[in-house]
């Protein structure tokens, strides 16, 4: 699995070996190299948007990852006799910063695993580093299909769902013969991959995509974008969006539903749900809402999150952070502490592990985690100040399995 070294790198390694061989009675190495099974610590570097437009997503991932380590290690923060150390770095949702921070984690902190990031753009920029440094990277929560598709490399494993999994769930809610659908999405890989996947899934069910509209990811005014959708006269507008600058208020202000255009989307995080009052009754899908999964791990997550964060419930990407942490701990348990990347890859391919969303499995062919999604309806609930995703039915990992695209 490892690549052959280029000459300059080989010369440096040989020089280092000569120096080590001539040193008299030097101390043995602490085992900071990638394959040492007697290393006393496991270091994990987590990349996340801890500031900027996706700050809430990054903090959800951070909280979930910390709770996931606590759960998976029974509070010891140790696995296979090794102490787990975590370093968080803020990508600022800028690919060039993500590369800088990832390089720092790999070279200065000498991490054994990378995790992240909140943005697909950040993540795509970092993927080549995982291969170059031969370190496992668990992708969470970035969803662009290309991460486990055209840009895949064998060191990448993804606990986050991908755009195609979202698309299958979203299409199942509204697409059928003769239905005309327009889409609205941010103009970067997350949005474009999402629309491409949704279009494929919807057309298979007989629907027609009559317009694709892409908006500036940092936009605050969506008037011109929404007007183009209105002019296309669809039956549905399917919206793919991430971030605090959501288009829901303007969609309501421009009265699309009064014009006969129904809205459908994935139920977002709680902050964005607060702006979706006009969409009560909408049918769509959800990646996660704390009341949807029915299992012991999710019960633990909800209870412990409330204890730790002043009664707050876990949000959209909290269970993803937890799942990423659980997957790393489970892999190290299975290798009995061996951090050799080839051993980890062999172990993690096809590996199943329990999460707040039920069982996930890293598909051997592309390392995408197959997982449960949820068909939902937005409803008002007494005592809750935002529309709540209510379960219509679970969409099984087999049902939402995306195509293999690598």
TrEMBL record:
<dbReference type="InterPro" id="IPR028081">
    <property type="entry name" value="Leu-bd"/>
</dbReference>
<feature type="domain" description="Leucine-binding protein">
    <location>
        <begin position="41"/>
        <end position="380"/>
    </location>
</feature>
<dbReference type="Pfam" id="PF13458">
    <property type="entry name" value="Peripla_BP_6"/>
</dbReference>
<feature type="signal peptide">
    <location>
        <begin position="1"/>
        <end position="25"/>
    </location>
</feature>
<dbReference type="InterPro" id="IPR028082">
    <property type="entry name" value="Peripla_BP_I"/>
</dbReference>
<keyword id="KW-0732">Signal</keyword>
<protein>
    <submittedName>
        <fullName>Amino acid/amide ABC transporter substrate-binding protein, HAAT family</fullName>
    </submittedName>
</protein>
<dbReference type="InterPro" id="IPR051010">
    <property type="entry name" value="BCAA_transport"/>
</dbReference>
<comment type="similarity">
    <text>Belongs to the leucine-binding protein family.</text>
</comment>
